[in-house]
Amino acid sequence: MAPSLFGAIRLSGKLRSALFMISPAIHIIMGLVMSKATASPIVPRALPDYTTSEAGNPFVEGWYADPDTEIYDGLYWVFPTSSYAYDEQTYLDAFSSPDLINWTKHPNILTIADVTWATRAVWAPAPIFRNGKYYLYFGANDIQEGEPEEGKIGGIGVAVADKPEGPYVDAIGKPLIGDYHNDAQPIDQDVFIDDVDGQAYIYYGGHSHANVAKLNEDMISIGTFDDGTQYKEITPENYVEGSQMIKRNGIYYFMWSEGGWQGPDYAVSYAMSDSPLGPFNRVAKILQQDSAVATSSGHNSVMHIPDTDIWYIVYHRRPLSETDGNHRVLAYDRMYFNDDGTIASIQMLVKDNFANGQMFDWKTYGGDWTVADQRLTIPSTGDARAFLDTNFTDVVFDATVSITDGSGDAGLVFRAANLSTGANEFAGYYACISAAGTVTLGKADIGTWTSLGETTMEVSVSTEYNIRVRAIGSDISVFVGDLTTPQVTATDETFIGGANGVGVRGTGAKFGSVSVAKAS
Fold first, then answer.
1. Which residue, of 85, 221, 430, 437, is most buried by count of CB atoms within 10 Å of its CB?
2. Rounded to an integer, what distance in angstroms lies between the CA atom of residue 203 and that of residue 256?
3. 431 is a domain residue
4. Is 241 an active-site residue?
5. Domain coverage including residue 23
6. 293-307 per-position pLDDT tens digit
7. Among residues 66, 68, 190, 383, which one is catalytic?
């Protein structure tokens, strides 16, 4: 039996041909849960109307890159590359989620044991459903131009499975595309089925050239265009790799990555056309690295929430503190369209509401930090800090804070550095509330503490308070509860930028609804 209706629609807007009829009386918001074997009842789920991954980016744990997406059986799926050295890239994992917050890992959905010709560099899986089967297109072996003629096999393969989580096995025993055509390296494929006529296309290419080809109805062989050719070059300006095709309101959007994949110029750009074959003229760059959030952002896919105009760009990026080129993680942010159909520039947002019960992007110094009841939690202790891998200068930093036990204080740390020297020896600012009823703004400088301002208010144990820090240049304001009138203000220019985090001194506390944004 075919998957649910959502399984027939590509998250990135790639519409399938109709798989089966479902009553029009049923209003689908998102995420149907329907057993393929038993056709169990539809279970409605909340609409995932987020500004970013509200439970934090990366949204899954581990080194991954090159994500592509699907919806199968009411679940959102992400299929990435395992981001290690080429010789270690011998398998693919996948992740599924009912809500884009809580993710289940499906390991080893495809391995080189299932593909006789693949030995390394298994890259960029592209999933799709058709003909009652789940197909997964992948690159392998990182072939260079001329190598197939020298006896080295590689290129784009296709595997098939009976379930979204596999196991996937090689469908044809050889690469589907195993040679260079139009100077395009056969990697980084994306598969798209047009809702106009049901024609399937494969977009791919590396080494600064991009091609499109037809897929036959069997999905495991290359078709032929009306002019007798099989591969058409569609290379737009600045194309490097990472092809992606989506469709919205009758417009075809071709997206790609440009720049060097380990460099500061790695980014995502796009073109628009009224045809799946182009021409694709570059419109703009929409995603690029942000020195406050992450570097080397690119190789994207797109999630479209069916029956809405909610879109997400799903991509990989490198944490600020990482220097290994392979240390890439998965992230998503909201993608908006302008009134004229163009895509607005993507803003990488920093949020964590801990709804997934995890703290993937947090590094801790001192204390026993855990996540409980959607709060970052620490029992009563001495000095302890937990930091995000950020580097903001002018910033608006929000979080909820509650003191659970002890007589000390808890609050927000910002523009912080020297994190590894110890919990009580960092350098940066600290805005906190205490069990005794004080609101304090101060600065720590490798063991030296200076108070910059203080006031009093009623503070109750186990009561959650909204705390906001607004720091623009040397002007710093601290808000508690009332986010319009500051409790403490100060002028200090000791620290101009650094990491954001939370901390305690001699108390236990809970933190939630963390949001860090550039101040305007």
1. 430
2. 10
3. yes
4. yes
5. 5-48+57-348
6. 999 999 999 999 999
7. 66
